[in-house]
Amino acid sequence: MLRAALDVLCLSPPAAAECRLALALAVDVSRSIDSQDYVIQTDGMALALSDPDVRAAIFGPEGRVALAIYYWSGRGYQDLVQDWVILDSPETLDTAIWEVRRTPRPAAPLATALGDALSYGLDLMGDAPECERRVIDVAGDGRNNDGISVARTYEREDFTGITVNGLAVGEHEADILDYYANEVIRGPGAFVETAPRQTDYPDALRRKLLRELQGPMIGGLSAHPSKG
Question: DSSP state, 61?
Fold first, then answer.
């Protein structure tokens, strides 16, 4: 009987690795992002996802990571660059990086509908794989100036269990870091990373990804309080 039980165990397929993080990267491509800024952002995301430390964090032993990427700008404009994918191999991650590099910048200069972008991210999370944590990582350089406000989005929709982190690019609007800290981020362990200039975007995104992949720091100090 013992031998038969062992044979069954040996023939059984291994259990699927648990997903520890569903991460949606939301990237601002509104009219304040010119063609040069777009190249910086695109190359910066590709470089950050290719960084050895980031890749080591993605493929760590703690569990798998699910990734989705979308671009956003004006009301009703969200472009799903990469639908949800479980990053179960370096090749899968490289395919997502290629999708980022091959996606063209929108031709029409549109406004900054951040509330709509968050609502889209919430809907996208509804299609995510079952994961221990769910994070929307929203990057932008301006306040909401089109469509539903960020505050109204949070009032109307249920973001329970979802963390919204921010990457505030500070070249175009004063106090954008405070705006993201006070109005945009929310949920368990939420934080803001900052890029004082657009050229700082790649390094800021790398730091942000590492922090998100490592998870909330128990007892750690956050530069900005979380909400929600």
Answer: T
Instruction: Scan for tokens 């991650």, then name that residue.
Output: 93
Q: What is the pTM of this model?
A: 0.87
pLDDT in tens, 111-125: 999 999 999 999 999
Nearest to 131 by CA among 187, 82, 83, 62: 62
Torsions phi, psi for 104 (to 5 deg):
-75, 155
Main-chain dihedrals φ then ψ at residue 118, nearest 5 degrees: -70, -40
Residue 195, amino acid: A
The rounded mean pLDDT for the chain is 88
Residues 6+ apart with CB under 8 A from 169: 28, 139, 140, 141, 176, 194, 195, 197, 198, 200, 201, 204
By CB atoms closer than 10 A (0-12, 13-18, 19+), residue 144 is buried
Biggest distance spanned by C-alpha atoms of the chain = 73
Taking domain 16-214, whether its CATH number is 3.30.750.24 is answered by no
Q: What is the DSSP string of 175-223?
A: THHHHIIIII-BSTT--EEEESSGGGHHHHHHHHHHHHHH-PPTT---S
* Three-class DSSP category at 22: strand
- Answer yes or no: is pLDDT of 130 > 60: yes
Could you tell me what percent of the chain has a pLDDT over 90? 75
